[in-house]
Design brief:
The chain is built from eleven helices and no strands. The chain is an all-alpha fold and 251 residues long. It has two domains: 100 residues, no CATH class; 115 residues, Serine Threonine Protein Phosphatase 5, Tetratricopeptide repeat. The longest helix has 21 residues. The protein starts with 13 loop residues before the first helix and ends with a helix. 44% of the residues are buried. Helix 6 packs antiparallel against helix 7, helix 8 runs antiparallel to helix 9 and helix 8 packs antiparallel against helix 10.
């Protein structure tokens, strides 16, 4: 049976599934829970349903409808990095799904705006954890685009920036379990990639993203922790843990 993800690719290969999980991890980590307790401030009050609707459009390949929603959000809250993040993420999904390389310019336009707002907010308040989450997320998406453009050094640099941001979120707000899921995916699948690629490329992944180590074990442990602590994305974490254990021969 083919799995129609509607995100990065369509298919049932481990690579497609892993790409889908990366998208889910980032989007769920940046989407408030029902209570909003752990994600207060991520989405402006009163806009939760509207932003979710935009994400739904993107998930169903109605990209321009989703982008229109995020454009509304940007106009309403230009100093919130969320609108720029969701806009750039939607464009990235469009690029991946349809190989729309002519959309690179639009992606970087909004990705740069997201980074600019995040950094401005962090200058005002270095402890702004929401800005740190969005900054880590946008670095992750930039990394994906740079891989597609075969700018591997830039991809690695953005990968390590994403890791640093997420690890800082864990340090400052360890009670947010979904962050462990994001790190678990990064640690495990980056470790597999480094092992598979080998050579200089594998060395760069280990050096700049994995603290110089094979972090598959840490990836599994972080993913398991997110499940045990009732992460918002725990069902997806269970699915990723299944793949990790399959790869490790731990059935």
């Amino acid at each position: 049976m083919r799995i129609k993800t509607g995100f990065l690719c369509d298919g049932n290969s481990p690579r497609c599934f892993a790409s889908f999980l990366v998208f889910v991890a980032i989007m769920l980590a940046l989407t408030p829970s029902v209570s909003g307790a752990d994600y207060n401030g991520v989405i402006e009050k009163g806009w939760e349903d509207r932003v979710r609707q935009g994400i739904f459009y993107v998930a169903n390949s109605e990209f321009e409808r989703g982008l229109a929603v995020f454009d509304e959000y940007i106009k309403a809250f230009p100093q919130n990095p969320g609108g720029y993040f969701f806009y750039a993420a939607a464009v990235q999904e469009k690029i991946q799904k349809f190989n729309k390389t002519d959309e690179f310019h639009r992606f970087f336009k909004y990705a740069k705006k997201c980074k600019k707002v995040c950094r401005k907010n962090l200058e005002k308040n270095p402890n702004d954890i929401i800005a740190k989450l969005y900054l880590g997320g946008i670095h992750g998406y930039i990394g994906l685009i740079e891989v597609k453009r075969r700018n591997m050094m830039r991809a690695f640099i953005n990968g390590v920036d994403a890791r640093k941001a997420l690890e800082e979120v864990v340090k400052k707000r360890p009670e947010i379990p979904d962050t462990y899921f994001g790190l678990g995916l990064l640690y495990y699948f980056a470790s597999r990639s480094a092992q598979k690629e080998g050579g200089m490329q594998g060395w760069f992944v280990r050096k700049f993203i994995l603290h110089g180590e094979d972090m598959r074990k840490e990836g599994i442990e972080a993913t398991l922790k997110s499940i045990e602590e009732n992460a918002l994305a725990k069902d997806y974490a269970r699915a990723s843990l299944m793949w990790m254990r399959f790869y490790e021969g731990d059935y």
